[in-house]
């Protein structure tokens, strides 16, 4: 008998480019002490962490070297895992129930 493990991964799927690259760096910076998994599929990247993943506007601005509006991230967001919460200051992917 095999042991089943649940999938508690959350995070964005982003169209490849400068914003996606900055977002990947932001996930590492804004989610300290979390294991981050990045799958590069050339045209898009899937970014995952366990149970919660936050991307902050300030981190995106620092990574891009320019002002940034969170709506810009939405333009390259192809899909996501988990639930999503957005504001002018951050984008949060999370789970309310864990497997």
Task: Please describe what this structure looks like.
This protein has 99 residues and is an alpha+beta fold. The chain has one domain: Alpha-Beta Complex (Phenol Hydroxylase P2 Protein), CATH 3.90.56. It has 3 helices and 7 strands; from the N terminus they run E-H-E-E-E-H-H-E-E-E. The strands form 2 sheets. A 4-stranded antiparallel beta sheet has the order 2-3-1-5. It has a 3-stranded antiparallel beta sheet with strand order 4-7-6. A hairpin with a 3-residue loop joins strand 6 and strand 7.
Provide a brief overview of the structure.
By secondary structure, the protein is of the alpha+beta class.
Beta-strand proportion: 35-45%
Oligomer: single chain
User: What is the N-to-C order of secondary-structure elements (H for helix, E for strand)?
Assistant: EHEEEHHEEE
Question: What is the tally of helical segments?
Answer: 3
Query: Helicity range of the residues?
Result: 25-40%
CATH class membership: Alpha Beta
Question: First CA to last CA: what distance?
Answer: 19 Å
Low-confidence stretches: none
Number of strand segments:
7
Q: In the CATH hierarchy, what is the architecture at level 2? A: Alpha-Beta Complex
CATH superfamily: Monooxygenase component MmoB/DmpM
Kindly state the mean pLDDT as a whole number? Answer: 93
Sheet with the most strands? 4 strands, antiparallel
Spatial strand order of the main sheet: 2-3-1-5
The CATH topology label is: Phenol Hydroxylase P2 Protein
Shape: globular
């Amino acid at each position: 008998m095999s042991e089943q493990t649940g999938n508690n991964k959350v995070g964005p799927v982003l169209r490849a480019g400068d914003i996606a690259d900055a977002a990947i760096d932001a996930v590492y910076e804004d989610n300290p002490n979390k294991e981050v998994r990045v799958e590069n599929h050339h045209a898009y990247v899937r970014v995952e962490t366990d149970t919660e993943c936050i991307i902050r506007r300030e981190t995106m601005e620092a990574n891009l070297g320019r002002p940034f509006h969170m709506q810009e991230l939405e333009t390259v967001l192809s899909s996501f895992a988990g639930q999503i919460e957005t504001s002018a200051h951050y984008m949060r992917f999370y789970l309310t129930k864990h497997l």
